[in-house]
Amino acid sequence: MSHETFELIDRLRQSGKRAAVATLVRTHGTTPRKEGTKMFVGEDGAVFGSVTIGGCVDARVIAEAGSVIASSKPRLLEFQLGDDDAQEIGLTCGGAVDVLLEPLQPALYDIARYRDAGIATIVRSGAHAVIEAPDGNSRMLSDDVYVEVFRRPSTMLIFGAGAVAIPLVTFSKALGFRTTVIDARPRFATRDRFPEADDIRIGIASEIANEIDIGARTPVILVAHDYKFDIPILKRVLTTDTPYIGMLGSRRRGAAILKMLRDDGVPESQLNRVRVPIGLDLGGETAAEIALSIVAEIVAVMHNRNGSPLSGIR
Q1: Is 40:68 a contact under the CB 8 Å cutoff?
Q2: In sequence order, what E strands does the chain have?
Q3: What pLDDT is stored for residue 58 in this prediction?
Q4: Which of 73, 77, 121, 294 could form a disulfide bond with 279, CB atoms 3.0-4.6 angstroms apart?
């Protein structure tokens, strides 16, 4: 579940209004929405999100939401779609879509906000149980049990508090990452410059890197553009299973730094993990454009994609 969804749940809780939450629990066929996609319908008729991309499915969910709120009982909506209806929501041909519509229980999601967890739901009765987060994504485990998987927010480590780091924090927060900015310069690593950062660390960056738990959901970005800064950090992060290591700089600069590491005994297999130049080729030159290219590449890598235009995928 995205951080925007948690924020929406909080707003609904604070408003004191009841709402129904619809979750896409099963699809048969290719669809632009995946299992776990949610839509909220308030008792005042307000609609947030979409379980498909509009059309007959969302319209039916909205129509049924009032009775679910009034009765406090869940309902499993099963859609058998003809070709016309299927194409309307992005399926290439007729198929089936199942949507669980239930009264929103904000407290149910609190336990999953800051920890890995799963919520198992019996779709016919709406009974829930919090379980250990299973491997994989949200999905139907059987004909009757749907498991929604929650993961703690990933933490993005940004080494260097220069101009590019500022929009990096803004974009990363919008995508749901926790952000930590690390720099040795107190004049740069300030709360005024990074009001949205979750953590700002000032000190010797390589020592701070050794203190931080860097794992498979901790992307690392080096934007200081200083080889004395970059090399010891790279030596540390290359020993971890971070999914992404990106370094600001030209190909020439990157090759020089990688040669220093190679001469120092770092294996080639590890050096191949360093992305330099950093980011996708968007053609941008401003700090914000460079930051956008970086976070776009990180999202692609963490979803095991290559960042190719969707229009070119057939």
Answers
A1: no
A2: 19-28, 38-42, 47-49, 75-80, 96-103, 117-122, 128-131, 139-140, 145-150, 155-159, 178-183, 199-202, 220-222, 245-247, 274-275
A3: 85
A4: 294
Which CATH number characterizes residue 160's domain? 3.40.50.720
Strand-pair category, 220-222 with 245-247: parallel
d(Cα 101, Cα 94) in Å, to the nearest integer?
22
Of 125, 103, 106, whose CA–CA distance to 19 is shortest?
103
Helix axes 165-174, 287-302, angle to 10 degrees: 40
Q: Per residue in 174-184, pLDDT tens?
A: 998 999 999 99
Tokens encoding 284: 């941008």
Domain span holding position 257: 155-302
Burial of 286 (0-12, 13-18, 19+ CB in 10 A): exposed
Instruction: Give the domain-ending residue among 135, 150, 165.
Output: 150
d(CA 46, CA 42): 5
Tokens of 8: 């929406």
Instruction: Tell which of 128, 150, 172 closes a domain.
Output: 150
Residue 196 has what pLDDT? 96
The 10 Å Cβ neighbour count of residue 7 is 10
pTM attached to this predicted model: 0.76
Q: Please state the rounded mean pLDDT for residues 119-130.
A: 88
Ranked by mean pLDDT, the top range of 3-12, 49-58, 180-189 is: 180-189
Number of domains in the chain: 2
What value does the mean pLDDT of the chain take?
A: 88
Q: Which of 53 and 225 is assigned the larger pLDDT?
A: 225
Residues 203, 181 within the same domain: yes
Specify the pairing of strand 139-140 against strand 145-150: antiparallel
